[in-house]
Structure formats: C-alpha cells, structure tokens
Design brief:
alpha/beta; Rossmann fold; five-stranded parallel β-sheet; 8 helices; globular; binds thymidine-5'-diphosphate
Length: 208
C-alpha cells in the first residue's frame, strides 16, 4: 500500500512548521510510518539550492529564475525522499510544496498559472499531494509572528505587506480551484485548536 502525501501551505508565520511537526508525531504515535520534510530542501542537492533561495537581497532572482530553482530543488526532493517513502507505505508530511511556487512565483511574482503548471508537469508529471492544508491568517499578523521568530533566512519576509496580502489571496484562490485536494484552516487561533482541526481534516479526507 502506498503512503499518503500531505502538504502544509500558507504565508509566513502561519505556523506551518509547528503544525507539520505535530501532525507527523500524532501519526507516528498512532503506529504509522512517517517522514517529515520541508521545501525548499529535503535532499542534499535541494539544500544547496535552498541556500541560494532564502538568503540575499529580496530582488536577487527574477520570478522565472526562482520558479526554475524551486522546481529543480523539488525534483531532487521528490525523487530522493518523497517518492521512495510513499512507495514503501510511509506517509509524507511536507512543509510547503508546489502550491508555494504557484502562489509566490506565479500569482504574486506575475507568472501565469499555465506557465507554473507546465513547469510542474515537466519536473514532476502528475505527482501531487493527496491532501493540502492551507493555513490562513491575516498577512500582518503572520509577518509579526515570523519577525519575532528568527534572524537570517528572511529574504521573503522582507518583501513587504502588499506582497504578503496578495499571497494570502493566492492560497485562497488555489484552495477554491482545487477544493478536492485543499482544506483551508483558520490559523489565527491557538496552536492546539489548529492541530485538532488538522487531525479532523486528515481523518475525514484520507481516513487515517
Ligand atoms: P522557509 O524558511 O522555509 O519559510 P517558511 O518558514 O515561511 O516556510 O523559507 C522558504 C521561503 O521560500 C518562504 O518564504 C516561501 C518561499 N517559497 C517560494 O517562494 N516558492 C516555493 O516554491 C517554496 C517551496 C517556497
């Protein structure tokens, strides 16, 4: 039996990483095999590319160069980590995946949905998550959380509030278009409330 592929998406500071970790531990404690991973990264070559993407000046890359780099990292991540795990029956929980490229480089970066879809097709064919949890909250609140959290690796956080407000709308539009795969979760609430809504969505949609 193949494992389920579950992704978390959303803007900066929405709590994706925490929720991905909580979900992975919950599934593990229920006796399932789970890999917890994140993008960009998750494979040796992809980590090298990550470094190019998350550091440096906000305008370091054009949207298309960025989209190509994220896809290059994703090919390595998919081939070396995600696909083998799923084939062996292990569930994969991933912090960000292709919807981030569609939202950041596509909707907000000004590249078309078609271009992003074509790139995805070339890189990964019809590979896609079984379930995507979109963590949603007002952009200002998310940015505030992200700013309190860490230093460094903040190239995308530096892009300003209008960028992040557009991003929120982008994820909501993706969720509307692909409602079979996506569930929007109100992430402005307490961590344990968000976690229990995540578990409900996973159970209802995937039966695990
Ligand atoms: P990361 O430190 O993982 O941010 P976060 O904790 O918010 O997930 O950095 C990844 C950054 O790269 C993040 O700002 C979103 C951006 N990104 C894209 O623009 N396109 C993509 O395809 C992916 C995967 C991430």
């Amino acid at each position: 039996m193949t494992g389920k592929f579950i992704t978390f998406e959303g803007g900066e500071g929405t709590g994706k990483s925490t929720q991905a970790r909580l979900l992975a531990s919950h599934l593990e404690q229920s006796g399932m095999q789970v890999v917890l991973t994140r993008e960009p990264g998750g494979a040796p070559g992809a980590e090298v590319i990550r470094d190019l993407l998350v550091n440096g000046e906000p305008d370091r890359w054009s949207p298309m160069a960025e989209a190509l780099l994220f896809n290059a990292a994703r090919v390595e991540h998919w081939r070396q980590c995600i696909e083998p795990a799923l084939k062996s029956g292990t569930h994969v929980v991933c912090d960000r995946f292709a919807d981030s490229t569609m939202a950041y480089q596509g909707y907000v970066g000004g590249l078309t949905r078609e271009a992003m879809a074509q790139l995805h097709w070339l890189a990964l064919g019809d590979a896609r998550p079984d379930l995507t949890l979109i963590l949603d909250m007002p952009a200002e609140a998310g940015l505030e959380r992200a700013a309190n959290r860490r230093e460094g690796e903040n190239r995308f956080e530096l892009k300003g509030e209008a960028f992040h407000a557009k991003l929120r709308e982008a994820f909501l539009d993706i969720a509307r278009r692909e409602s079979n795969r996506c569930v929007v979760i109100d992430a402005a609430r307490a961590m344990d409330q968000v976690h229990s809504e995540v578990l409900t969505a996973v159970h209802t949609r995937l039966g695990i």
